[in-house]
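Re: the 71-residue chain
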Amino acid sequence: MAINQVKIGTWFQVEFTGDFNWETTIGVNYDYYIEVGIVKRVWKNLSLNYQRIHGSFVDEPINQFGIRLAL
């Protein structure tokens, strides 16, 4: 699994998460999960985020919008 975070400019961060598996699921030679997100801090510990998810377990890519609270 790889989790990386990069700050681009000064107003948002880009996050990348990936999980790649070979021959770990019976009947499947390869499965994967990839998530790319953009995070914008709006106030102290509160951020808004957008994520795009691709994976072998979903029929089509998923878009998610959310609020993140860092404690």
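Residues 2-69 form one domain.
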